[in-house]
UniProtKB/TrEMBL annotation:
Keywords: Membrane, Transmembrane, Transmembrane helix. It comes from the Bacteria. The keyword Transmembrane helix applies. It comes from Methylomonas lenta. This is Uncharacterized protein. Pfam families: DUF6632. InterPro entries: DUF6632. The chain crosses the membrane at residues 12-34, 46-65, 74-95, 101-121. The keyword Membrane applies.
């Protein structure tokens, strides 16, 4: 895939991921699939914090879609923080049976977002990749 084509797809991906982070994460955690996206036992304080952080990130990703190259560090932060977040959650899903459902829920979602953004980022902006 050519870099220009990747950049067009990156703009779309940033817009879609931004909206998912703003609307989709809270919907998944509270309404659609709380067991696959929330904590067990429920910890509303932490869940609200995570929803707030991801909604904020979503707004900035959505805005970054207009000029992704000007916001490369934000996009790379999103990639690497999703890898770290997903990795930590993966560890706890393995060692704590109450978190195993997350192996089918938010853990794959974190890695998918990281991979999509990594793949679409122009090679000249890559950090560790």
């Amino acid at each position: 895939m050519q870099q220009e084509e990747k950049l067009r797809y990156l703009k779309t991906a940033l817009s879609v991921i931004g909206v998912i982070y703003i609307i989709g994460v809270p919907a998944m955690m509270m309404l659609i699939w709380p067991s696959g996206w929330g904590w067990t036992p429920a910890q509303p304080e932490y869940e609200h914090m995570i929803m707030g952080v991801y909604a904020t990130l979503g707004v900035f990703l959505y805005l970054a879609a207009k000029d992704p190259l000007a916001h490369a560090s934000l996009i790379w932060f999103t990639i690497w923080s999703n890898i770290v977040h997903g990795g930590i959650m993966f560890y706890y899903a393995i060692v704590d049976e109450t978190d195993r459902i997350n192996l089918l829920g938010d853990i794959p979602a974190l890695f998918i977002v990281a991979f999509v953004l990594w793949y679409l980022m122009p090679t000249k902006t890559r950090y560790f990749g």
